[in-house]
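ok trying this again, last paste got cut off
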Amino acid sequence: NNTTPSTAVHKPVTMSQKQGKQRNEIFVDVVERLTMLFSNGGYVLNSEIDGCIQLKSYLSGNPALSLALNDDLVVGKTE
């Protein structure tokens, strides 16, 4: 299992050695909060999604990085 818990982004940055080599890892957390208001009949009256992307880098040096998101991602659209 290569999955790290979502709390890893809050750990201090430390460089650990793995068989004499420096560890090169990036941890990406997508944190979302969904708020919904329902009527007595069970219908959605209001809904809101709020979130952020948190990144913790353990890369050696200063490499250029790119973050790609799915093409179907919609930000800021309301119906």
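PB: full thing came through this time. The two ends are 40 Å apart (CA to CA).
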